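Hey, I was hoping to borrow your eyes for a little while. I've been puzzling over a protein and I'd love to understand its fold better. The fold is given in discrete form, as structure tokens running alongside the sequence. I'd be grateful if you could look everything over and explain what you see. No rush at all, and the record is pasted right below.
>
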Amino acid sequence: MSRSRLSRGLAALSLAVSLPMAAGAEEAAPSAREREAALLVGSVLGGTPMLDDLRSLVDEVGGRATGSEANRRSVEWALERFRAAGVTARAEAFRMPMLWLERSASATVQGQGVRFAPRVAAMPFSTATPKGGQSAPLVDAGRGTEADYKRLGARARGAFLLVETDELRDVDGLFREYNEAVGIESRAFAAGAAGVVYMGSRPGNHLYRHSVSVGEKNTRPMLVMERDGAKRALRLLRAGKALTLNAALDLQTGGPYETKNVIGEIRGTTRPDEVVVLGAHLDSWDLGGGALDNGANVAMLIDLARQMQRLGLKPARTLRFALWNGEEQGMHGSAGYTRTHAAELDGHAMALSVDIGCGRITGFYTNGRPPLVPLVDKALKPVEGLGPFTQVDVPVVGTDNYDFMLNGVANLIANQEAATYGPNYHARSDEFEQCDARTLRTNAAVVGSLAWGFATMDEKLPRQSRAEIESLVNSTDLAQQMKAFDVWDEWTNGTRGRSPERQATPGAR
């Protein structure tokens, strides 16, 4: 996109933001909060270093799997960006339960008169294979349904099961993948399979990371095979050819270790002990540069903090710009924050997660808190010309709002148009070019208005009790989502989420 075309587009957006104010000139003059929000919105819509930051993070730091050297560099990178902008910043340590990184992955498929080597990627939390690889029969597991496993019978035991997939086109398909994987993999484990091989679902033969559904409890090699190679293998199997797969997965694994989130902070003036958290995850998987997931939104939050500092804006509540690590491996960075700051959570007014790439923000998930909807509407008033915005009041699992929700803090997720997110999710193709500059700046304006609204409004929702959180779990599909993301057991065993309220001990009679 040319610079002149981008400038014309941003000018039009600035006009769109100002129209609601102009149309209301006959009404009361804008409040100080609204004037400050307009200053912030106008600033991020203009020429700022946001896109340069994104390019630097994606191209210079690159894929940033938690535990990797690139991830450690990303922490220093983010601290430098905040501090150069004059924003107070710190790295906060938290504990990861397990180290998992891929060093290399390869595979060979062979049978009588057939031999080829499709590209493969280890699934996060796959086990490593012995040096030289692990060989087993490769069998056609269809779609991995109950009927497919019944058809396979004893042939599944000790075999690599090749599972056919649809090509991924949108975010709905992505969530369907997560949900279906739980059943596919549990059936494979019960059948005694040597491992599971998924046909790659991304177009263009792109490889990607997709975590094993049972996480670090997994005990088998698990991998994704490039789509065309998997199709070739399935055609051979369905023509009656017996095939063997040798998979060689060299992984770096280990026990618990310490890593860090990055927190930028603008302290509140009149209510500094009340906190608004604005979050995006700094980590990414390593095959691509991590632009959509989630470098774009990291760059956005850094730029919002930079522009607030440059403009001298003073929020009533403390604003924390949280760049989480460990999100891709179980949302551990935000979980660590809720433990470290447990004594402060009663004062947290809102926690936002922005994590669906670069598509236009169409509203926010309010995660089962109906009173939150009008507060979001109020905060977005200064940017209503960039809407419309619709809030969706259902709970969502899968990103860094999760532990705030389970701790009773009002929480939001930016709801975004899919754009290029689905097909490039966790994939080699997740690079800088996937993000549209105009849309990213528009999203920054929307998030800026939301942030400033919650940092300055009088209203604040109370923190929910454990009983209220349990009611939300029991009355929605939240439990099903938690199981799909392998976080259900931590809720039920009390290692994540708000603890039950202490009951007063009855006095002696």
